[in-house]
Write a structure and sequence with these properties.
By secondary structure, the protein is an alpha/beta fold. The protein has three helices and seven strands; from the N terminus they run E-E-E-E-E-H-E-H-E-H.
């Protein structure tokens, strides 16, 4: 089965039936499985629904790198999420995130 990781904010249960089955992880200083949020529309929820619509057989995994208090994610969480994907040998990583800080490039170039 093909695994697709969405590195973004939280994918939420109950918004679209097509994505009511996925693995949910929060990224802080580690990547840890957590219970997903319910019922509100997020960017990752929309992305997950689109992906599942066109590829319903995939295993969907959500890595939430955002905190509820901020619209911004920390580059270290992003790097840790990418590293986790490499270790797990996931097939596809969906990204809708980026940075406007030049120094973040150094941190992200060395992720493996």
């Amino acid at each position: 089965m093909v695994s697709v990781v969405i590195i973004d904010d939280a994918v939420n249960y109950g918004v679209f039936k097509s994505i009511d089955s996925f693995s949910y992880y929060e990224v802080s200083d580690t990547v840890k499985p957590c219970l997903p949020n319910h019922g509100h529309l997020t960017h990752a929820t929309i992305c997950g629904a689109i992906i599942k619509h066109y590829a319903p057989q995939i295993k969907l995994i959500n890595l939430n790198i955002f905190s509820p208090q901020s619209a911004y994610a920390d580059v270290n969480k992003f790097a840790l999420a990418l590293h986790w994907c490499a270790l797990q040998r996931v097939d596809v990583v969906h990204l809708s995130v980026g940075s406007v800080t030049k120094s973040d490039k150094i941190r992200l170039c060395h992720v493996s």
